[in-house]
């Protein structure tokens, strides 16, 4: 229980973890999308991946919410499982939630890894036509097929053809955790209102920004603005990579994540 809300989560940890690491998921995604990274990192760290409210196996929610609300959920979760302060890794919407978490609950955040995300606001560079197509797939598509098409459009061209296992896993995750059109709409509306531009300079946690060079959903210029706005933030750009660096460049992603944790742990 997190307050009066129930959140499901995945946890992998050794007997003597080096630190706590919280993974926050993207629009339409659940904790299952982080499973491989959590298993790998959980060899040395206490790795935790919760489902956001109204997502996966967490409690359903019919009311509108903001990304700040999801950040407060994450803060309550960290306290409930005695995992604070934590390194927070967020991808896309999860990275937006991580920014709000660092601004609203700085004492809970030991470091930030912001992946394929944006500070939002008027200066944002919008998605390309290919990126928009990933967001607005026909609602009547079965969840597994929608997940396959979305992953194909979000990753760099040719990735899913070369990695059919990633397609199969995305479809299996969506079949286990299908998201209703209403739930997707609530997350999307929360993202549209996201803007941390004015607060970036107040983020004091060590920060690493990771982004694909050819991200069609959240173009690279958004990451550059994010890294420029957070004091001392580093930026690592993956060439030939789209919106899902942890899938498209898993070895590089884990190397950079581990390096950051070791430097600031």
What does this structure look like?
With 265 residues, this protein is α/β, with parallel strands linked by helices. The protein has 11 helices and 7 strands. The chain has a single domain (9-264), classed as Alpha/Beta hydrolase fold, catalytic domain (Rossmann fold), CATH 3.40.50. Strand 2, helix 1 and strand 3 form a beta-alpha-beta unit.
CATH class: Alpha Beta
Radius of gyration: 17 Å
Mean pLDDT: 97
Report the CATH superfamily: Alpha/Beta hydrolase fold, catalytic domain
Give a count of the beta strands, DSSP E runs of length 2 or more.
7
Judging by the overall fold, what is the CATH architecture?
Answer: 3-Layer(aba) Sandwich
Organism: Deinococcus budaensis
Protein name: Pimeloyl-ACP methyl ester carboxylesterase
InterPro entries: AB_hydrolase_1, AB_hydrolase_fold, AB_hydrolase_sf, Epox_hydrolase-like
Domain AB hydrolase-1: 20-250
List keywords for this structure.
AB_hydrolase_fold; 42% helix; AB_hydrolase_sf; AB_hydrolase_1; Rossmann fold; 7 strands; alpha/beta; globular; 11 helices; 265 residues; seven-stranded mixed beta sheet; Pimeloyl-ACP methyl ester carboxylesterase; catalytic activity
Concise structural overview:
The protein is α/β, with parallel strands linked by helices and 265 residues long. It has eleven helices and seven strands. It comes from Deinococcus budaensis.
SSE layout:
Layout: E1 9-12, E2 20-24, H1 35-41, E3 46-50, H2 67-80, E4 86-91, H3 93-104, E5 109-115, H4 129-135, H5 143-154, H6 159-162, H7 164-176, H8 181-192, E6 207-212, H9 220-229, E7 234-238, H10 245-248, H11 250-264
Parallel strand pairs: 2-3, 2-4, 4-5, 5-6, 6-7
Antiparallel strand pairs: 1-3
């Amino acid at each position: 229980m997190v307050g009066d809300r129930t959140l499901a989560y995945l946890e992998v940890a050794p007997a003597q973890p080096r630190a706590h690491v919280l993974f926050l998921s993207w629009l339409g995604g659940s904790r299952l999308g982080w499973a491989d990274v959590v298993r790998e990192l959980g060899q040395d760290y206490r790795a935790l991946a919760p489902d956001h409210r109204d997502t996966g196996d967490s409690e359903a929610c019919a009311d509108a919410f903001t990304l700040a609300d999801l950040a407060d959920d994450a803060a309550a979760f960290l306290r409930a499982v005695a995992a604070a302060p934590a390194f927070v890794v967020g991808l896309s919407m999860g990275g937006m939630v991580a920014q709000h978490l660092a601004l609203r609950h700085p004492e809970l955040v030991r470091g930030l890894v912001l992946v394929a995300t944006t500070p939002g606001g008027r200066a944002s560079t919008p998605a390309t036509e290919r990126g928009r197509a990933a967001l607005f797939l026909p609602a009547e598509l079965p969840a597994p097929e929608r997940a396959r098409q979305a992953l194909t459009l979000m990753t760099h061209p040719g990735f899913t053809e070369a990695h059919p296992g990633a397609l199969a896993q995305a479809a299996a995750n969506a079949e286990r955790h299908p998201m209703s059109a209403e739930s997707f709409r609530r997350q999307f509306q929360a993202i549209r209102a996201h803007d941390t531009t004015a607060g970036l300079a107040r983020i004091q946690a060590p920060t690493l920004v990771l982004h694909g060079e050819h991200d069609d959903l959240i173009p690279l210029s958004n990451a550059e603005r994010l890294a420029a706005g957070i004091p001392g933030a580093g930026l690592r750009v993956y060439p030939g990579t789209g919106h899902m660096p942890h899938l498209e460049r898993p070895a590089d992603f884990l190397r950079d994540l581990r390096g950051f944790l070791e430097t600031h742990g």
